[in-house]
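Suppose you are handed a protein chain with no further information: no name, no annotation, nothing but its sequence. What can you learn? This example shows the usual starting point.
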Amino acid sequence: MKNSRYIIFNQNETKGQIEAAQSDMTQVEHTIANYFLNNEELTDFSSKRISALLYVSEATLSRFAKKCGFKGYREFIFAYEKDLKEEKNGTVSEKDISLFTKKVQSSYQKLLQEKGILAGAVGDKILRLVPPLIITEKEVDIFVTNLTAVLAEVEKGA
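A reasonable first move is to predict its three-dimensional structure. Written in structure tokens, the prediction is:
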């Protein structure tokens, strides 16, 4: 699910890889990405059929798959079909939950950095707040108010 600025949850791992690679894609590759991100049906994903459907070359499909982190289009489709089947069956693995947790954590960090609350993350478990380290009661109240607003914004998008 998406809100206007942050990816909160991906339907499956393959779609997550597509979304992660979108910033480096050409306009044609964005067209391919949108097809796979919006598709929910198992169908014939042969390169011949998809290239004809999207008016792109089979080589473009291969470049798209490589940009998403796969060795080629066949490997991409194998993973994509597997994820679609799991999605249809309602299968949720520990890997899916871990991916979701990391995406939520990343979204919170981005929001907190935008609001000037968070200076950065140090590893997975340590957050560095914006200095100064000695803060007043009023500053704590402002922090809590901003943090509450960020959490409400994330919940609204979820």
